[in-house]
Structures are given as C-alpha cells and as structure tokens.
C-alpha cells in the first residue's frame, strides 16, 4: 500500500526527495527515489535505527535501498549502515580506511558513541557491523537512479571532518544534503577530527553546488536556505580566524 512521507513522519522536500529527523541526536536521514533505484543519505546512530530507516524507505520506495551515501564518519550518521549491507555504499575519499575491521577508526567511533550516551553494548555491535565503503568519492560522482533522476555526490571537505560528502539532487528546487558541515539546531561542532581552517571553503563549495535557490539540509536541524549557509560560513571563518 502506498504511503505518504508525512504518514511515516518524514518531510517531503521535492518530488521523490524527503528526509526525517531522528530522535536522540536530531540527525537527518534522507531518501531520494528514482524509477529504478533508491538512495539513502546517512543511516542513523544504531543498528535499530538503521533497520527502522530501511523499513520506512521500503514502504516509500516500494523497493529496497540500492545506494547509501554517508556524509561523514561520525557514529550518529553511520552506525545504522549495516541495515543497508546489500546497498552500494559511498563515502568521501578516506572513509573506507576508517571503517576497516580491527582499525582504530571503528574503536574511535565506538568510544565516541558511548561518551555521547549510546549504550555500550549497542555501540560495540554497531561498530563491529560497519559496512565497507565500496565507493570512495574524490571530486564528484554522478548516480543515475532511473526515470531522469540524477544525483551528484561531491567530496566537498575537509571541514567538519576530514571526509565530508555532500549530496546534490538537481531540480526545482534543488536539494543539497550537507551533513554536519551545516547545522541549524545548534552551533556547528568541531571535534578533534575537524579541519576548521578549511571549513568555510567547504561551505563555499556547497553553495556552488546548490546555488541561491536550493534547499540546504543540515545534518541536525531544520532545512535552511543559501543565506543561512553564507551566514554560518562567515561565522565559522570569524570563529576560527580564517581570512576571506
């Protein structure tokens, strides 16, 4: 039975494009539907959350998720990725090494999740189950989801992390999934893996992708416009002493 975005608690952004705000850390997960394929943007903060996203996507798309794009390697955006193990997984160049079995990247994600309040058992299970990033994006990479639906994945970082991936869905309006390069519900967070001196330039690249009329979907919070992204870019430049 066909359901609407709203019936599942999702926000429709454009034809075949929507997102939901997940509880707990208020993370965004996005979904882009084509005639032949479905792209999930980020996967939630736990295996359970990923499974719920998978179920919602199947109801909205009428098929399984075929592609998964991870905007950056933080636990609240990737720990549900095992729910999409049979999808083609994309991340910015360098993400794959962080997810390697037995590597320090997985341990850092697990430790950060526990520090932020995720149950230790659930954090360990999600870290152990992390999927391989089969496709690392350097520069830009186009996806054809069928029926004229084109999506552009762009390695726009570093900034919030060393591995920031944006997802552009052209249209009227265009939709740009920004990951945590943009945050609306609080001040952008700069952890130990941030590259603050390059963050404003990453936002310039986002603006170049979407243009003035796009909808910009932050990693946390409400959808914003280009003026908000510019203001956040300027605030970050001032905060980190980056000359423009």
Automatic annotation (TrEMBL):
<dbReference type="Pfam" id="PF00753">
    <property type="entry name" value="Lactamase_B"/>
</dbReference>
<dbReference type="InterPro" id="IPR050855">
    <property type="entry name" value="NDM-1-like"/>
</dbReference>
<dbReference type="InterPro" id="IPR001279">
    <property type="entry name" value="Metallo-B-lactamas"/>
</dbReference>
<feature type="domain" description="Metallo-beta-lactamase">
    <location>
        <begin position="26"/>
        <end position="220"/>
    </location>
</feature>
<dbReference type="InterPro" id="IPR036866">
    <property type="entry name" value="RibonucZ/Hydroxyglut_hydro"/>
</dbReference>
<protein>
    <submittedName>
        <fullName>MBL fold metallo-hydrolase</fullName>
    </submittedName>
</protein>
């Amino acid at each position: 039975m066909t359901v609407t975005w709203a019936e599942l608690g999702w926000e429709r952004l454009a034809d075949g494009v929507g997102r939901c705000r997940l509880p707990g850390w208020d993370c965004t997960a996005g979904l882009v539907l084509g005639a032949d394929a479905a792209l999930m943007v980020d996967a939630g903060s736990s295996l359970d959350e990923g499974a719920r996203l998978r179920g919602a996507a199947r109801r909205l798309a009428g098929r399984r998720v075929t592609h998964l794009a991870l905007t950056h390697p933080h636990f609240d955006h990737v720990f549900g990725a095992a729910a999409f193990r049979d999808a083609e997984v994309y991340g910015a160049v360098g993400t794959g090494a962080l997810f390697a079995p037995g590597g320090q990247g997985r341990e850092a994600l697990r430790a950060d999740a526990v520090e932020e309040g995720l149950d230790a058992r659930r954090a360990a299970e999600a870290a152990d189950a992390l999927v391989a990033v089969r496709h690392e994006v350097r520069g830009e990479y186009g996806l054809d989801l069928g029926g004229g639906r084109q999506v552009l994945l762009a390695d726009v970082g570093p900034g919030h992390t060393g591995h920031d991936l944006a997802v552009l869905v052209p249209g009227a309006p265009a939709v740009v999934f920004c990951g945590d390069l943009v945050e609306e519900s609080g001040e952008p967070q700069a952890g130990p893996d941030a590259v603050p001196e390059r963050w404003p330039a990453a936002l310039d690249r986002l603006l170049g992708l979407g243009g003035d009329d796009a909808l910009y979907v932050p990693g946390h919070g409400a959808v914003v416009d280009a003026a908000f992204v510019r203001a956040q870019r300027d605030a970050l430049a001032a905060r980190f002493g980056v000359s423009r």
